[in-house]
User: Which sequence fits this backbone?
């Protein structure tokens, strides 16, 4: 495992880390015992950073993390998120009193006294333009509730707006082979300003595992069913904004990247890791096997310049026009 500095913070985090949305819920059936075993394997293999949120299983993923890292709290960095447990369009959701309540509830579930990274969870752009929430986070940082703060964004425009705030330490962005727009301006600007990049939805909600056919159906409680067209939240969070069947076709076209890299998912994660501006990539997981398979990406060959150019041309010529939503 290699470790990368998170922006200008003192945190050195594993270049491949894990997101915990799936073990909290909204990805079909879960098994807590298997989730805890998977977390143990990740930690044993050097993963020292986990991303969660208060709405993942109504706090359940935070509770699972607390169990998994008991006795190892000083070795593991935790990032959580807030605002989506309330009305994301109301300024009251971002008041000092409310945000303090959110962070204290997360700390209680995580059994911690301070969060390493606290992120605004995909707020409307009007909230980012208003900017008051950043002053609230500055105050919570001064009080010792959080070490650093950042923003999880849906679009490049939102990300660039956040970079205008001097104390934003990290941006969490949707970034994968099928969602390359951040490469154009956002990632270079973040690097220039010393802001860390956390790449989420790295496998496009499973599309980039190559395991799906067009006939595949998802469980009713899986966001890949109930949010497939953006019915519940931003469509970009599901399949990176692609219509499912279109995504399956596109993945077949890009499958050549797996040659010499064991699997398509390995290659997809390796491609993200090969981007210099990325601090860490956070695939999700529900099983021990998924954790182990994702970690294999660390050992496969990097992309050559010719391959990188070919992947970029594929995105520009075949993928870009099919992405839905604001990105």
Assistant:
């Amino acid at each position: 495992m290699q470790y990368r500095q998170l922006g200008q913070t003192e945190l050195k985090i594993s270049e491949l880390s894990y997101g915990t949305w799936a073990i909290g819920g909204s990805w079909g059936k879960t098994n807590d015992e298997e989730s805890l075993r998977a977390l143990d394997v990740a930690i044993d293999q050097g993963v020292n950073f986990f991303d969660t949120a208060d709405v993942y299983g109504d706090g359940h993923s935070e509770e699972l993390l607390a169990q998994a890292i008991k006795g190892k709290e000083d070795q593991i960095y935790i990032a959580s998120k807030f605002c989506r447990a309330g009305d994301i369009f109301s300024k009251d959701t971002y008041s000092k009193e409310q945000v303090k309540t959110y962070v204290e509830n997360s700390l209680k579930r995580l059994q911690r006294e301070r969060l390493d990274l606290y992120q605004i969870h995909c707020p409307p752009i009007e909230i980012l333009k208003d900017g008051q929430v950043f002053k609230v986070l500055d105050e919570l940082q001064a009080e010792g509730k959080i070490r650093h703060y950042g923003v999880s964004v849906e679009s490049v425009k939102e990300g660039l707006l956040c970079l205008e705030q001097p104390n934003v330490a990290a941006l969490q962005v949707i970034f994968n082979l099928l969602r390359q727009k951040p490469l154009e301006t956002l990632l270079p600007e973040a690097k220039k300003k010393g802001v860390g990049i956390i790449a989420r939805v790295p496998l496009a909600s499973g599309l980039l595992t190559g395991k799906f056919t067009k006939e595949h159906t998802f469980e009713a409680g899986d966001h890949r069913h109930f949010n497939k067209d953006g019915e519940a939240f931003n469509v970009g969070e599901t399949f990176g904004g692609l219509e499912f069947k279109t995504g399956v076709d596109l993945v077949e076209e890009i499958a050549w990247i797996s040659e010499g890299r064991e699997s398509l998912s390995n290659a997809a994660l390796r491609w993200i890791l090969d981007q210099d501006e990325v601090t860490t990539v956070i695939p999700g997981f529900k099983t021990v096997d998924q954790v182990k398979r994702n970690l294999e990406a660390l050992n496969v060959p990097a992309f050559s310049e010719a391959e990188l150019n070919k992947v970029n041309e594929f995105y520009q010529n075949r993928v870009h026009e099919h992405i839905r939503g604001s990105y």
